[in-house]
Write a structure and sequence with these properties.
By secondary structure, the chain is an alpha+beta fold. It has 10 helices and 7 strands. Helix 2 crosses helix 9 and helix 4 runs antiparallel to helix 7.
């Protein structure tokens, strides 16, 4: 009887809602968002949403690397045909193997940023704005042939010049968020890769992802992203034309080429 009571108590404790992680102080949040703060808004919103599913990131990164030879409509078709089990927010990053590799290369960071965004989305967005203000004030963040940078109402917005081409900035946080030394050429501190996304990727939200910075809202696929710490186990974001196949055995229908 005693063992039964102990077991029942353990089950009851395990069933209790898990409390959110302790909030990060602003300086720690600034450090946490540093590597993605200068991503254009559509890509940043997608990374924050996907990071809330850290257990799905390694498999998604592997699939993305194995199918990096596919692009555009062919890649979109492969994502559908393989009946992938991951949340559409994670599937939306499959055209970006470099981003997924960054996330899977530091799963501690990915889990931390995902949990922080679930528990304190406003704090994460405030930290992004602080970092952008710093990079802008030091001259690193500015409009160019890839991005349009605007500052209005106290918020810095970064958008692609071409909505169909999503730039992926590459930069060193220890450089772009620090005042440049005299004579340092700030124009070379941020370089860009990028991915062309056609209409085939619209169902995953591309073309309809942005921030309403004033209201502190992330918009994914034209709908506010409402997944939070307390509803993370049950929340399903509306994706009208993307199917979810959780728990199914995925059947590979395409060649797999390991990315080099």
């Amino acid at each position: 009887m005693k063992k039964l009571l102990i077991f029942t108590g353990l089950v009851a404790r395990l069933a209790l809602p898990q409390p959110p992680p302790p909030p990060y102080p602003p300086q720690e949040l600034d450090n946490l968002v540093s590597r993605i703060a200068l991503y254009p808004d559509p890509l940043l919103s997608q990374v924050l949403a996907a990071a809330g599913y850290p257990n799905e990131i390694p498999d998604a990164a592997a699939w993305s690397n194995q199918h990096s030879y596919l692009h555009g409509d062919a890649l979109a078709a492969a994502i559908r045909e393989d009946r992938l089990p991951w949340d559409p927010a994670v599937q939306a990053l499959l055209p970006f193997p470099s981003v997924l590799n960054m996330m899977v290369g530091d799963m501690g960071w990915t889990t931390a940023i995902g949990n922080a965004f679930l528990a304190d989305p406003n704090g994460v967005m405030d930290a992004v704005q602080r970092r952008r203000q710093e990079a802008m004030s030091y001259g690193y963040l500015q409009s160019n042939g890839q991005i349009v940078v605007t500052s209005s109402g106290g918020y810095v917005t970064i958008l692609p010049v071409n909505p169909a081409f999503i730039p992926v900035p590459v930069y060193n946080p220890s450089v772009v968020f620090v005042r440049p030394r005299p004579g340092f050429f700030v124009g070379g501190a941020i370089t860009f890769g990028g991915v062309t996304l056609g209409a085939a990727f619209a169902p995953w939200g591309w073309g309809h992802n942005y921030f309403d910075w004033g209201a502190r809202r992330v918009i994914i696929n034209n709908h506010p992203w409402e997944r939070r710490w307390d509803n993370r186990a049950v929340y399903v974001h509306p994706y009208e034309h993307v199917e979810r196949h959780p728990g199914e055995r995925r059947i590979e229908r395409h060649e797999r080429h390991e990315r080099r």
